Amino acid sequence: MRQDPLNDVLQGALNSPGKALVLLIALGAFGAGYYIGGHGLPAALAPPNSSNTGANQDNISVRFSPKGGCTDAVVAEIRDAKQSIHVQAYSFTSRGIIAALIDAHRRGVKVMLVNDKKAADEQGSKASEAAEAGIDVRVDGRHPIAHNKIMLIDGRTIITGSFNFTNQAENSNAENLLVLHDKPQLYRVYEESFQQHLAHSETYTAGGAKPDRRTR
Ligand SMILES: [Zn+2]
Which residue, among 156, 142, 135, has the nearest Cα to 92 in the 3D structure? Predict the structure, then answer.
């Protein structure tokens, strides 16, 4: 008659103190694994997740979606803007972010938005709202997708990362957002890149872009 393998182990353990010790260690390891995999670890040791609060170091801060404060961080930087905001956006549907940009425009900050051409006319896009408010909105149709999500503020703040300026990126997607302050060498190349895309973009008008004679 075949014996059950586990029974073999248990029988062996009972017959040998050495094997019993091994069995105890194995059971202990299993229990510790179960404990770590479940709950009860101090927050600092818990596996990273996307609802943490991010971190700051050397004038750079990072946040993670969903619900990690990315939208609040972007809005706070826009509210601090005093001179200029250069935006590159793909999908752009965030009510809070467009409201902050329109506020900035109304208090005299020079706001420019370069949006992906197709995304600008998608449902929920805030491109037309921005244009109607008087913001200088261009659309970039030179790439399969103009996928940058960047804001350049006052010559000193860079906002970048995977975070689209959308409610979905805030509430449900897995995204990251970096905010960099006072990194002039990096700012310079970001601004150069913005200007390159601006130069081949067209002025946006709701429902379709018209060629922009100023940039051709
Ligand atoms: Zn471009």
Answer: 135
Task: Catalogue all structural domains in the chain, each as residue range(s) with its CATH number.
Answer: 5-45 (no CATH), 55-215 (3.30.870.10)
- Calculate mean pLDDT across residues 144-160: 98
Cα 201 to ligand 1 centroid, rounded to whole Å: 7
C-alpha 143 – ligand 1 centre gap (Å): 6
Residues with CB under 5 A from ligand 1 (ion): 140, 142, 197
Tell whether the model's pLDDT for residue 15 goes beyond 70.
no
Concerning whether 147 is annotated as a catalytic residue, the answer is yes
By three-state DSSP, how is residue 127 classified? helix
Least confident range of 52-61, 78-87, 174-183, 193-202? 52-61
Instruction: Write down the catalytic residue from 118, 154, 181, 200.
Output: 154
For 41-60, what is the mean pLDDT? 66
Q: How far apart are CA 6 and CA 126, in angstroms?
A: 64
Comparing CA positions, the residue from 34, 10, 4, 7 lying closest to residue 23 is 10
67 flagged as catalytic: no
Compute the distance from residue 115 Cα to the ligand 1 centre, in Å: 9
Position 209 confidence tier, pLDDT thresholds 50, 70, 90: low
CA distances to 116, 160, 167, 204 from 164, in Å: 12, 9, 9, 19
Catalytic residue, from 147, 181, 183, 200: name it: 147
